[in-house]
Amino acid sequence: MKRVPGPTDHVVVVGAGLSGLACALHLLGAGRRVTVVERDAVPGGRAGRVRRAGYEMDTGPTVLTMPHLADEAFAAVGDSLHRRVGLTALDPAYRACFADGSSLDVHTDGEAMEAEVRRFAGPAQAAGYRDLRQWLERLYRVQMRRFIDTNFDSPLQLLHPDLARLAALGGFGRLDGRIGRFLSDERLRRVFSFQALYAGVAPARALAAYAVIAYMDTVAGVWFPKGGMHALPRAMADAAADAGADLRWTAEVDTLERSAGRVRAVRLASGERIACDAVVLTCELPVAYGLLGRAPRRPARLRHSPSAVILHAGTDRTWPHLAHHTISFGAAWERTFEELTRTGELMSDPSLLITRPTTHDPALAPPGRHLHYVLAPCPNTHVGPEAAAWRDLGPRYRDSLVGVLEKRGLEGFADSVQEELLVTPLDWDAQGHAAGSPFSVSHTFAQTGPFRPRNLVRGLDNVVLAGCGTAPGVGVPTVLVSGKLAAARITGGARSRPARTRRYPAVPAAYPAPAPAGTDEPS
């Protein structure tokens, strides 16, 4: 593994999102002095927080899987995730609701899920689920250490017996077809393939290897941190501070001072100069390349994942058929992905993720109120409407989504809304997300593993990248891994053993005090 040459005593990490904080903790654990500079007033990056009229709205991811990857970062400084954050294992992990009126609870316990599939679709599909689960477990074991939790220096690293094992498992076939070998019920196939959207690829075109994402939430489990997802980066920032990190809030980087092939200092917009031995950039790729004054030459332009419209709604009522996470599938499927990734149209029959965080933490809303997070995938601004078009399109689409929700059993939703925040590609674009997408570079084959933008920067010896735009990719688990991999580029540290799922108790221990109040804009 290539590593940063020369002195690395003092490292500046740009960005206090999940990747930056994970990187900082691993660096601190390896004895480095660390300064973290963050342009916002609070940690989190995409996993930010907006407070409105007593509602605590998570502005980024709402699904936490593989918490042991976060625990690795805490463990690097002798701390632990479960000491800092109370976690609840969600059961069901999701509730899937279909256009025909049927519903399925997705359990991560194998026996419970097999029984649910038998009730839902019969004994043949239950047997198929049992085989699918075993395949997902084998797929994860083959991929995690060799293809996800690793720093690639060359595509030649793929030439390993694990590549043959992955091929033998059918990992280079198509996701939808491979899932179909186990399950013939179309509704069940959706439950185990919709995750491809996280990777920015339609299931019919995605590699079957991406079923590892389905493993993470349907087998390894889904968790909810008390205080919402923002509690995780807040706890990581607290652990980093306790371990000696210098955390600078509302500190935007203006330039990188370079000489002789190295960055010598980070200059802030305030004029402050922070001398350093190495730099980790966790900001968006376009922002990072702007600071570096260069972008890597690639044979084709980077392709980005679809974007999303998110409606955060504080309401005076809720609906009993909702679970903590509910996936509301429309009747359309293949057409939906065609619209999102090819034609650039808004979903004509949308599939939605509805999250109700107040299910497990009523304190996220005023007494007697509820918080609902509605995520509707939409085309990114390279494929669909330009960012500026969302200024007028956003409110109209919001009303359309509310109409869909009411038709799908959330009667009275429009009248129940007491406070709301609408986030569209216009907002993502304003935050510097390329193509107006918070899901970054898509996981096509040409943008995965050693073919994804590297975390080392050619021509600058002491700059490392982290975050969802670089390896291993998009999603909370992989972003946490990216921070660890970036730290390893600096410390040369040995990789950990293959990550294993671990049960975390829901600890009512000391809970970190609320972070400083943010703005009323998406963090």
Q: What attributes characterize this protein structure?
A:
523 residues; alpha/beta; FAD/NAD(P)-binding domain; Guanine Nucleotide Dissociation Inhibitor, domain 2; 3 domains; 7-stranded mixed β-sheet; 5-stranded parallel β-sheet; 16 helices; 32% helix; 18% strand; disordered C terminus
Short description:
The chain is an alpha/beta fold and 523 residues long. It is 32% helix and 18% strand. It has 3 domains: 10-52 and 67-78 and 226-300 and 443-491, FAD/NAD(P)-binding domain (3-Layer(bba) Sandwich), CATH 3.50.50.60; 108-220, no CATH class; 306-438, Guanine Nucleotide Dissociation Inhibitor, domain 2 (2-Layer Sandwich), CATH 3.30.519.
Q: What oligomeric assembly is this protein in?
A: single chain
Low-confidence stretches: 494-523
Helix and strand content put the structural class at alpha/beta
Question: What do we call the CATH homologous superfamily of the largest domain?
Answer: FAD/NAD(P)-binding domain
Spatial arrangement of strands, main beta sheet = 8-7-16-17-18-15-19
Number of strands: 20
